[in-house]
């Protein structure tokens, strides 16, 4: 009996949609199954009453996102549709937002660093620049620092570099505990994406590329896959109460989800999947009746709140500064992100409790918030971002050398690159692996059409 599909893709985030697009362009019959009601995964957007809320990822960079920009060109997305944010990142210290985080001008503005710490920031920048070519965001285990956590690496420098740079950046953007996650991954990403002053966002919401890809594909939303089994030269999926067969299945979901779904992974796959732990992520969007924000002459679009300053929050995103289209004229929009420990405590809590904890904390930073706040929504990802531990880096080489099989994987965790660029690149790689295997099967005389 012939299979129902050439390729079944599980997950309609950027990895799954990129892979599906590549495979469909090669002439294969591809279907994407997504448990959610919308596409985008951790690059989804939520629209309500004229507001556009980025529920996961916030921005991209003109640097270090080569595969993403190539994809956007193929989709017909112009540079004008991905405008520069044009507002700084700031770090909260001693009662005010200090601009210049993740920018070279931090040496001048301070960005929350003491004078002595700025000297060590310069020392770190020189050290990293000299080793730039050794940091490979596709193979982080090959570069410097692979055996060190962020916290261990930070001990080389003034404590402020950990407390007011490495910790708030890794905590807000990745949800990381610096005592667990890899310095190699963090430093490599900082070098790849460059100056925060150049960062961009999608004019119509961070789900723009996902929506455009999905329009061209057979995507079935609201269809939860319960199990995937490699079966001879193909695989079968249990989708709801149905069974679907395919010549190949791509699991384009977070590693812990892939581990749960795949009934019979090869041992080398299982070991890496087990090592690829994820941090949960939460965000509360606050729809405001006026455009208020943390005070400061620099008007930042994002304020990092370091653990040494704040017990609940890791960042306050001023969405109406990030792009004016995120809120109706004369209105405001803030997104509140909790610190990792708070997220772990609240990930399964009722929405009301989450909103209460985070909105109570923001009053300290945004005067008048309580009177301006009109409506709140909670966005949660139990698998937010790959934790990228040194143990995962140690197990990655064996995983990347695995044999081709009917069930394969894509996602930012494959390269331990927690960003949409990592998802796009892994989707393209997974598609090439599927095509290589199916072509080899055809040459063996089993008659797989391409």
Automatic annotation (TrEMBL):
Domain Amine oxidase span(s) in chain numbering: 14-435
Superkingdom per UniProt: Bacteria
Signal peptide: none
UniProt xrefs under InterPro entries: Amino_oxidase, FAD/NAD-bd_sf, Zeta_carotene_desat/Oxidored
UniProt-recorded name of the protein: NAD(P)/FAD-dependent oxidoreductase
PANTHER family reported in the protein's UniProt record: PROTOPORPHYRINOGEN OXIDASE
Stored SUPFAM superfamilies: FAD-linked reductases, C-terminal domain, FAD/NAD(P)-binding domain
